[in-house]
Fold this protein.
Amino acid sequence: MATRFTTMINYERVGKAIKYINEHANEQPNLDDIAEAINLSPYHFHRMFKKWAGITPKKFLQYISINHAKEILQNDKTIAEATFQTGLSSSSRLHDLFVKIEGMTPGEYKEEGKALNIHYQFGESLFGPTLIASTGKGICHLSFVDDEDRALKQLAMRWANARIGEAKDEHIENLQHGLTSHQGNLNKVKAHIRGTDFQLKVWEALLKIPVGQLASYSDVARAINKPKASRAVGTALANNPVAYLIPCHRVIRKVGKIGQYRWGSTRKQAIIGWELAASQRS
């Protein structure tokens, strides 16, 4: 419990630091300014941040800058294209974790989980509190949580006819362990999710974006052979039922801006920066 509580507090401080930096970007705040804004001494802030991200706050700021994002999009475009061209299979590598997507059958999709027993658990991650749910066949829901009651209502709305209850599940426990690990190591993870054929293609394409890389909406649209469907790709990203596992956070605007994120743009910046740091360490 203490470890999870510490993880939560550290992410809250990191989030506040990123928000402060964004709001005072023109002033170029230094380490002392940022530490004071989140009520820590410069020494403790530097130590906490490096423990969370693995790099210094100064280096992290460089990773989440617009210019750096634009460089990644430009320099790694051929890498992204080569990755996408390997084909959209149902099994793809996500850093040291394997995610396999199993789409619902047409009957399961239509009935909105009528025959399913869904278990859920609240937990923690390196990027804040989570709600994870499983059908028993795999993870069907992963969201970052600001309000537990609202999070449960959203889960219930998505699975209107399922029986939903709080309980332990091997899929959930495996994922919870990995989400609090600084190494990001997980055993094979299976996602059992419902979506249209188009959404599933988009989500599978996202799994082809390597850690530490970024793609634009148009990149993803081209990857699924729908080059004019950038707007529809954005809608599919907004409906991603399993945050982080299906890395919609790796898709940004072509101009280098982070863009919108269902679970907050500050969290999106934090995940991108953390993954860029992790990719440099590996």
